[in-house]
Each structure stands twice: as C-alpha cells, then as structure tokens.
Amino acid sequence: MEKHSLNVNGQPVEVDAEGEMPLLWVLRDVLNKTGTKFGCGIGMCGACTVHIDGKAARSCSMSVSEVGRRQVTTIEGLSSNRTHVVQQAWIAEQVPQCGYCQSGMVMAVAALLATKPKPTDTDIDESISNICRCGTYPRVRAAIHRAIRSPAA
Questions:
Q1: Which residues contact 77 (CB under 8 A, 6 or more apart)?
Q2: pTM for this model (two decimals)
Q3: Which of these, 151, 142, 130, lies nearest to 93 by C-alpha position?
Q4: Which parts of the chain have pLDDT scores under 50?
Q5: Which helix (H) or strand (E) holds 90?
Q6: Residue range 2-78 in CATH 3.30.2090.10
Q7: Running DSSP on this structure, what letter comes out for residue 27?
C-alpha cells in the first residue's frame, strides 16, 4: 500500500492504495463516491466517466498513481443539489430508464458543454461515446439540446 494525495470534488484527500489500483475503485471503495459506476472495466462504455481537470476521463482505465494532484470531479461533485444545467436537462427530459449509465453520461456531456457550449450534432456524436443499454439515446440528445438552450449554460 502507498499513500496517495488526491483532490476529489475540490477537497484534498489522502488514500492508502496500490499505485496501479484503478481510480474507479479508489473512488467507490475507498472514498465511497458510488455515483461513479463500473460498467465494462476496459474504458469503453463510459459508466465510470469522471472529470480530470475538467476533461471527461474513464476512471476504470486510469490508475490512482496516474492522477497525482489533478482535480478529480465525480457526479457527486458536479453539483450538490442537482442544479447543474445538464442534470436539470436530464430531469426535464426524463432521460434515465434503468439509470445505471447516467452519471457517466452526464459527466461526459458536462465536460463537452464546458469546452464547447453550443456543440453541433456532429460534435455530440464525436464526443459522447458512452453506451446506454436501455437505448435512451433520443432522450439523451433531447436533454443535451435542452442544456444548450438553457440560460444557465
């Protein structure tokens, strides 16, 4: 075990973990940030998406030692009361069906809108590669467009 100093949701934290432990398991099992989900374990599905210095990253394929002092934001840190524009759009469009992939999807969309506030459908297609087994993609797209139109965006 090694000590790792992290910054998670704006708070400095110290964790004891092997350096190669995926960030996902540090967040879920060590820090109890269970909004970040395990999906495929190989960085393909996006259920584990968090922000690393504001950019979407798949936490299952990044080791805790790779993170260093960079800012990690989980779904719990996106907003304390679901007031982030993307969360509000998700609620308004009733996006989730089972909901399992949604925290990763919300994080991916929030990162996209932070860098490109008015993305085109092509931008969305190229940036959001998260997988939803329930197939809520039309509602996801509607929510993204609602977030784009929101005055808070």
A1: 8, 9, 10
A2: 0.95
A3: 142
A4: none
A5: helix 85-92
A6: no
A7: I
